[in-house]
Amino acid sequence: MNTATLPSTGGAPAPAAGTATGLLIIGASQSGVQLAISLRALGYTGHITLLGDEDHRPYQRPALSKEFLQGKVGSESLIFRSNDYWVEHDITLVKGERIEDIDSNPDGSGIATGRSGARYPYTRLALTVGARPRRFEVPGSDLDGVVYLRNADDALKLKAIAPAATDVVVIGGGFIGLEAASSLQAMGKKVTVIEYGPRLVGRAVGEDTSAYFLEQHRARGLDIHLNARVSRIAGDGAVSSVHLESGEIIPAQIVLVGIGVIPNTQLGEQLGLEISNGIVVDEAAIASDGHTLVVGDVANMPNPVPGAPKGERIRLESVNNAVEHAKVAAYALMGQREAYAGIPWFWSNQADMKLQIAGLSMGFDSTVTREVPEKGKFTVLYYRAGQIIAADCVNAPLDFMAVKSALAAGKNIDPAAAADTDTMLKTLIS
Amino acid sequence: MATINFTDFEGQTRTVDATVGDSVMETAVRNGVTGIVGECGGSLSCATCHVFVAPEDFESLDPMGEMEDEMLYGTAVDREENSRLSCQIKMCEGQTLNVATPETQV
Predict the structure, then answer these.
(1) Which of the 8 DSSP states describes residue A191?
(2) Which keywords belong to this entry (chain A) (predicted)?
């Protein structure tokens, strides 16, 4: 049997054929990188192969819609680790390879086969395969100039076509859409945002925060349409306009689609793992076969927040989750049970607004708002049965930090006193 | 060329060559310096790249902005007079910087 692998494209040399092969991590993502790093920090001695389907060294995604798109940082700034790091830590990087088939054994070992034909034997497997952008299907959605923004190649393409465009339509008023819209506006484009739902970022923030962003973005010149439906995208080869069901026609040389992602469950399905809104894992980030580690955006996991309703499950799309979930998986591989650390948090930078979210607001029954308009500060605190569970904080890091500490310590912030912006939230933690 | 000396909580110092224009955080993370996390990649959102700058170097740095100042109140180890977020310190040609990392960032 031929188990030779292609030469590695970075990091440490691949293990020789026929030797113990260690861990294969499919997905050179934030979670894949963190899993490899955490395992080395914990003393894992097996070989680690970190394999990704992109032709780039493992890199950080968040800046793609912001600083990188605007040319404020270069590609080198996005790289997670120098090549020396990977070599010194005996981690082999494989770039530009997509796993198409996995032959697994009951003990969790197996052989993965890539599109190149190369075979990657492993003693343990981790899937950190993330998610892919949901495609937008209307007549004309395959025209040149209709783009997505998930990975570095998407961002490079958008950067390449941006200079020639004057008008951009962004489809989707979520984080990616609004971050990219703000960036493109800062680059001098006339930007229109088309949102299908009744409010912005409806999946991640409460109504008050949505309303705040709507007002602020409109004041900064973004043209935002809510409850709007695209009937078709028009153009001759390349996009020239977007037609709404209302009859309105908006000129556009670029249409950027940001309407959410779909977890990449294909390999999990092939392995026969339980699938439900992602790949289902237990508290230790282990899938239903009892062996495969599944981490990050693709994993449907028990809600990790202390005090969350028993049995509640969640799939989180965030850097913070990728990092913390990977640590849980690293401990599990070392035979240790370690609880998910910290409180889930998220950030999104849009124009001069820095949004930080602490905790998960689902299930809230009341809110308290703190606003200092002259400083551009805006905070919404979310409570469930009188207990604080989350906060959306715009340009208000002190509020964010206070809520994060209160949640981590299992404490509360008195809602009756929290509306007074002269009082620091930190002093109300009890 | 620039140089950064990172001294960890236990007093061990590691010297790393930095590219001019890169931040202290980027330099640390890319080279696997333990003691600096930089979860948000330098967008001033996470306060996990806290360092204590050597007093003789502290004055030579550009002053911190309001956001950095506020974020420093949320670091895992309490701030001191010479605290900075290392994502906000960009290295200059010929500069040698001495920083100490806290016991924990999270």
Answers:
(1) E
(2) FAD, Flavoprotein, Oxidoreductase
CATH value at residue B23:
3.10.20.30
A10-132+262-333, CATH topology level:
FAD/NAD(P)-binding domain (3.50.50)
Q: Other C-beta atoms within 10 Å of A409: how many?
A: 11
Mark yes or no for CB contact A80/B46 under 8 Å.
Answer: no
DSSP B87: G
A109, A271, A430 from A105: Cα distances, Å = 5, 10, 52
Say yes or no for a CB contact (<8 Å) between B70 and A397. yes
pTM, two decimal places? 0.95
pLDDT tens, position by position, A63-81: 999 999 999 999 999 999 9
Residue A293's beta-bridge partner residues?
A: A126, A286
Q: A136 — contact with chain B (CB < 8 Å)?
A: no
Distance CA(A383)–CA(A413), nearest Å, equals: 9
Would A10-132+262-333 and A135-259 be classified into the same CATH topology?
yes
Chain B CB within 8 Å of residue A349 CB: yes
The answer to whether B77 contacts chain A (CB < 8 Å) is no
Is the domain A352-428 a CATH 3.30.390.30 member? Answer: yes
Q: pLDDT tens digits for A390-407?
A: 999 999 999 999 999 999
CB contacts < 8 A, A to B, total 70
Range of the domain at B58: 2-100
Q: Where are the domains of chain A?
A: 10-132+262-333, 135-259, 352-428
pLDDT in tens, chain B (106 residues): 899 999 999 999 999 999 999 999 999 999 999 999 999 999 999 999 999 999 999 999 999 999 999 999 989 999 999 999 999 999 999 999 999 999 999 8
Distance (Å, rounded) from C-alpha A49 to C-alpha A28?
Answer: 10
β-strand pairing of A190-194 with B13-18 = unpaired
CB atoms within 10 A of CB A166: 11
Give per-residue burial for A11-40: e unless 16+ CB within 10 Å, then b. bbebbeeeeebbbbbbbbbbbbbbbbbbbb
Give pLDDT tens digits for A140-152.
999 999 999 999 9
